[in-house]
Amino acid sequence: MQVNIILSGVGGQGILTLASVLGSAAIINGFDVRISEVHGMAQRGGSVICHVKYGRKVASPLVMKRMADIIISLEASETLKSLNYLKPGGTIIMSTSQFPPPLSTIKGLRYPNLNEIFDDIKSVAGEVYIVNANEIARKIGSTLTANMVVLGSAWSTGKLHLTRESIIKSINMNFKEHIAAMNIKAFEEGIKAVKKLL
Q1: What are the angstrom distances between the C-alpha of 16 and each of 103, 146, 173, 194?
Q2: How far is Cα 84 from Cα 61, in angstroms, rounded to an integer?
Q3: pLDDT for residue 51 is more than 50
Q4: pLDDT score for 42
Q5: Are 96 and 136 within 8 A, CB to CB?
Q6: Could you tell me how far CA 41 lies from the centroid of its own chain?
Q7: pLDDT in tens, 142-156
Q8: Bridge partners of 59?
Q9: Strand pairing category for 86-95 and 127-131
Q10: Of residues 129, 191, 183, the one with CA closest to residue 162
């Protein structure tokens, strides 16, 4: 058994933190883990794609094109940039949050609306799950927890093959105590709020 995941979003959303939480949880579950940031810059506004692989034995740190079991996306349009990694019939879990890049506004470029994004991903994915992560995170008290909201939604699909306890333990390992509690709350809220689109 091996799980190949692509994480996508923009800088400042906590993609690398999400990768770290996933990786630590996988290690707690006894899996071999490889994580690699291969595209983009982890700076505010720039595209970020991160590869996370775990299983009994993982050789390569990279997910090949059309080999990802799951895409977890923190920004709607960024999902489209990682679609070429998804295997036929793969699963997408995405936040409906949208952050048009500053350059698109300056140059007057058209930014796709959610329905257009949904149409594109439905043509490729086997299952699609959505969650309004930023709205939930805002209610919790910090939009910085949106990555854990999406993680909760991803875990609820059963596709991650990780225990709930391992993810909570991993969150406690990756955040300071007072911040961990808020992120665990975000994870739990993501489990409850996810909707199946396809």
Answers
A1: 23, 13, 15, 22
A2: 17
A3: yes
A4: 47
A5: no
A6: 16
A7: 999 999 999 999 999
A8: none
A9: parallel
A10: 191
CA separation for the pair 63, 146 (Å, rounded): 24
Separation of alpha carbons 158 and 100, rounded Å: 31
Distance CA 114, CA 117 (A): 5
Token pair recorded at residue 105: 């506004």
Structure tokens at 43: 């700076």
The pTM assigned to this predicted structure is 0.93
Residue with tokens 């975000």: 186
Least Cα distance to 94 among 63, 121, 113, 123 occurs for 121
Q: Identify the H or E element spanning 33.
A: strand 32-40
Pair 22, 50: CB distance under 8 Å? no
Phi, psi of 33, rounded to the nearest 5 degrees: -130, 140
Tens of pLDDT, residues 95-138 = 999 887 665 566 667 788 999 999 999 999 999 999 999 999 99
- At residue 151, the 3 state secondary structure works out as helix
Contacts of 66 (CB under 8 A, 6+ apart): 84, 85, 86, 87, 88
**Whether CATH 3.40.920.10 fits 2-196:** yes
